[in-house]
Amino acid sequence: MSLKFFEKLSQNFIELLHDKDDYNVIIQVENKEKSFTAHSNVLKFRSSYFSKELENIQPNENNIKIITKSNISAQIFDFILKYIYGGTVNLENVETRFIFDLMLAANEFELTELFKDLETILIEDKASWLKTRFSFVYHTVFDKENFKNLEKFCNDIVVKYPNLIFDGSDFTSLSESALVSLLKRDDLQMKEIKIWDYVIKWGVAQNTTLPTNLKEWTKDNFLTLKTTLKQCLPLIRYFHFSVDEVLNSIKPYKKIIDKQLWEDINQHLVTPKRPVKSIILPARSVLVTELPPRINEPNIISEDHAAEISSWIDRKTTTYSITNIPYKFELVLRGTKDGLAPQTFWNICHGHARTVVVAKVKGTDEIIGGYNPLAWDNTYNGEVNDWMKTKDSFIFSLKNGKSQINK
Fold first, then answer.
1. What angle do CA 158, 160, 164 make, to 5 degrees?
2. pTM for this structure?
């Protein structure tokens, strides 16, 4: 039989943290504006980071070792210390951004147990927050070695909705490794020619001295771009471009493409069945799912409407056929079943992104609606600074087989 008194032990260690008579370490945080006292033995045994740091720091005249972590806020470090001493973290009434920052700090201090649990909480319970701040999250965690689950969460979203990253204002600041990981994905949901354009855009942005006018580029300019994109260029699916795409978008940059590859591209356009020497990567797979079978109860929109709305989402000039709709429309809320109260809408739709809302005008055959690519967030506090922006939303009207769209 084993008796365990961890709660009392935790409480006693928290009390030790506040003991100002026997400390031998001072940690300065928040640009040295706040200091915490601690005990070297506790820090060393609880954190490999502190174990290494304390090993390399000489004590001062008072036999105190001083560690400076200017990038960590006082509030975050207070939580870190309480975890180190007491093994507890109280996340009640804290903002999701605080949990995210705490996770980053836990990783920095090599507190594996804590940062993995916080990572899980964010993915499982705070997914809507991650999605609405996707670009920030993606850029923050991608190159950090330990956040593999969060990295996978982000990559699974990007391949389905690549515009979240590629159309972002900070796209060109994306790390090379992050861009390469996306280009390797066979399921990246974007036209290959758009991928090419974005890769060129990224490469040019890494070399600010390149002339803005392509006609002014020298041989060295093209060599510079080719060198910058050496990890990216082999991942482009060159043999799935149309003639117009090659002439309009690829040919102007043919000097960054190996001579043999350029010859093979042109040969493939003329005689596609003739073997080439270059490696032909498979075309990226497009996720095409059929609409679920019609249910017996009345629907506001038909499959034809769904095809038309899908075409607007993808900015198509021609409408998808009902057998080739690239999206699966899943019912989230029905007014006749769930009610029409605003709070009901927020409660049910919270966390859902890429949603279509439709309503039928009573006494008419007119259908009105709108598309929101962002996730609905019922935690929004009304502050202007928390507004989300998008260029991909639109409203529409369907009547007597005719349609109208406004963005």
1. 45
2. 0.59
